[in-house]
Design a protein that fits this description.
The protein contains 2 helices and 14 strands, in the order αβββββββββββββαβ. The protein has a 12-stranded antiparallel barrel with strand order 2-3-4-5-7-8-9-10-11-12-13-14. It has a two-stranded antiparallel sheet with strand order 1-6. The chain folds into 2 domains: 1-31; 37-286, monomeric porin ompg (Porin). The chain is globular, with a radius of gyration of 25 Å. By secondary structure, it is mainly beta. The longest helix is centred in the first third of the chain and has 30 residues, at 2-31.
C-alpha cells in the first residue's frame, strides 16, 4: 500500500512542478515585448517616407525614375523619352536613427534628411498601438541663376520639411500611415503663395501575395497656400520583393521626388492623363563589418 501512496505522491508532485513551469512560461511570455515589424516593405511608400528605418550599419541605395507625362502621346512614347532621376542613399546610424542624402536631375536638387523613430508598435509587456517617427528634410536648388547680375541670395534656394509619421499595422496584410507635414520655402513666386505649406498625407499598404503589395499615397494641401494650377499629389504603386531588392512600380501625378516638389509643385491631372510612370529601386548593403 505504501508503494501506491508513494506513486500517487510522485505523480502529484510531477504534475505540480509541470503546472508551475507552464505558469512561469506564460508569465515570461506576457513580460516579453513583441515589436511589430514590416509595417511597410521599405523606407518609402512611393514619394514620401514610410515609418520604416534603415537598420544600424546598413546602407540602402535608392535609384528613382519618373518618366514624362503619359498624355504626351506616341511622339514622346507616352513619357518614356523624358525622365527625371534621383540617386541617393539611406544609412542607419542606429536602429532608430537614419540619415540620408540624394541628388535629383530636376532643378539639380540636392537633399538631405534625418529620421528618428520615437515609438514602435508592440504588444505583450508593453502595448503601443502605433509607431511614430519624426522626419526633418532640407534641399537646395543648384540650377545656374538666370540673371547672374541680379541680387541672387543663397538662402532663396533653400527648402525645408518637417513630418510626423504615424503608422499602424492592422493585420499581416494591411498597414496605414498618417503624415502631417510642413514644407517651408524661403522663396515663393508670388505674394499670394505661402512660405509655409501645411499638408496632411495618408499612405496605405495591402499585401496581395507573399512578395507583392499595392501601395497608395495622397497628400491634401490646406486651402489658399499655393497657386491655383498646383494640385494635390496622388500616387498608386506596387512593391515587388526580389531577394535583396525591393522594386517599386507606380503611377503618380508628381514629377519631383523631394518634399518641396511633390507636395507644393505637383501639376499633373489624373483625369486627363497627366501622370508619370516611374519606379524606385532599393538595394541594401551591410557596412557593419565582421565581429
Amino acid at each position: 500500500m505504501n508503494k501506491y501512496y508513494l506513486l500517487v505522491f510522485s505523480l502529484f508532485h510531477l504534475f505540480r512542478v509541470s503546472a508551475q513551469e507552464d505558469l512561469l512560461s506564460l508569465l515570461e511570455e506576457e513580460e516579453t515585448i513583441n515589436y511589430t515589424s514590416a509595417i511597410f516593405k521599405t523606407s518609402r511608400i512611393i514619394n514620401s517616407h514610410s515609418i520604416e528605418n534603415t537598420p544600424r550599419g546598413i546602407l540602402d541605395v535608392k535609384i528613382s525614375h519618373r518618366f514624362g507625362f503619359v498624355n504626351n502621346g506616341i511622339y514622346d512614347l507616352f513619357g518614356l523619352d523624358g525622365a527625371t532621376i534621383r540617386i541617393g542613399g539611406d544609412f542607419g546610424i542606429t536602429d532608430n536613427l537614419s540619415l540620408g542624402f540624394g541628388r535629383s536631375s530636376l532643378e539639380k536638387m540636392y537633399d538631405v534628411y534625418a529620421k528618428m523613430r520615437i515609438l514602435r508598435q508592440s504588444n505583450g509587456k508593453r502595448i503601443m498601438p502605433v509607431s511614430l517617427s519624426y522626419l526633418a528634410t532640407a534641399s537646395i536648388n543648384t540650377l545656374r541663376f538666370e540673371d547672374p547680375d541680379a541680387s541672387n541670395l543663397f538662402q532663396s534656394r533653400l527648402y525645408y520639411g518637417h513630418q510626423i509619421l504615424i503608422a499602424r499595422k492592422f493585420s499581416e496584410g494591411f498597414s496605414l500611415q498618417l503624415m502631417p507635414t510642413l514644407v517651408h520655402r524661403n522663396l515663393v513666386q508670388t505674394h499670394a503663395e505661402s512660405h509655409d505649406v501645411f499638408s496632411i498625407g495618408i499612405g496605405g499598404r495591402q499585401k496581395i501575395s507573399k512578395r507583392v503589395s499595392i501601395n497608395l499615397e495622397y497628400f491634401y494641401n490646406l486651402p489658399d497656400q499655393l497657386a491655383q494650377h498646383y494640385r494635390n499629389s496622388l500616387s498608386i504603386g506596387f512593391d515587388i520583393e526580389t531577394g535583396g531588392h525591393v522594386f517599386q512600380l507606380h503611377f503618380t501625378n508628381s514629377t519631383s521626388m523631394v518634399y518641396k516638389g511633390f507636395i507644393t509643385e505637383t501639376v499633373g491631372d489624373w483625369t486627363d492623363g497627366g501622370i508619370h510612370f516611374g519606379f524606385n529601386l532599393s538595394r541594401v548593403f551591410s557596412l557593419k563589418g565582421n565581429k
